[in-house]
């Protein structure tokens, strides 16, 4: 059984009950010129996640373990976008990579380096959390997944919301600190601390090389 040195305590999982969740590694959040940068954000804070996450995904795939990707976005007619979200601007407007966070647009899709492989589910979500108004829970239940390694962007928004949703649904979540990113270094630090605080109130935090080493010990 892989055993990961994590905070606040060791995180263990069975190879047949774990999935890697890759949250919203979309061009519009990560690429220079995209939606994230147009809001004044420093996208290099997110792109530094690509390399370690790519290595984790490779190790994960080498073990034949499941990866589930998510994308935040909306139908072209915006019928699934709450008026309150729309009113804050951006969504559906023309951006450098097509209409912002609209399904089917170039900017809405996942960065080339982390492209899903055939057969890996891609869950399209209208909200921040990956469980809200999606098929995610059904996918997890189908394969009896009970533990999640949660990666992606942004730490304090979609990663945190998803970890909290998962925690309330009974899933144990491990977050590799170098595989999640925030535009704001302070939010990154505090976001990770909040997960592991109070005896792991939302989950566990580790580094991806530790997770990879634990996986490779299984060979
Ligand atoms: C945001 C996300 N930040 N994926 N989305 O709007 O965290």
Automatic annotation (TrEMBL):
Keywords for the protein's UniProt record, in alphabetical order: Hydrolase
Gene Ontology molecular function: hydrolase activity
Positions in coiled-coil regions: none
Keyword Protein transport: no
Residue intervals of the Isochorismatase-like domain: 19-201
Entries under Gene3D superfamilies matching the protein: Isochorismatase-like
InterPro entries linked: Isochorismatase-like_dom, Isochorismatase-like_hydrls, Isochorismatase-like_sf
Protein name: Cysteine hydrolase
Species name: Paractinoplanes ovalisporus
